[in-house]
Specification:
This protein has about 100 residues and is an alpha+beta fold. About 30% of the residues lie in helices and about 10% in strands. The protein has a three-stranded antiparallel sheet with strand order 1-3-2. Strand 2 and strand 3 form a beta hairpin. It is flat and about 65 Å long. About 10% of the residues are buried.
Length: about 100
Amino acid sequence: MTSSSDVTMPPRYLRTPDASKFVGLSIRTLEKHRIYGTGPRYSKLGGRVVYRVDELQAWVDSAARAHTSDTTARVIPAAARRSPLIPPSPVRREER
């Protein structure tokens, strides 16, 4: 008979709403980080985005700092408002 301590549990996965609570960001901010490639690693299972808890924790830990002037920590940029792949719209000049 196998004891419960011998059984290894699969990694726990969180969907976006629960992952956003885990890291303390809004759902939309986490989605933007995913779109711009600045967020934690994720997987798609049956069309659903899921995050492993250990990946979320590693992403948060990568930005950990010892003090305000600590330059050794990775800076996680804020999610950009525009995709760099979309060119800016042309400036219209008023006709005279």
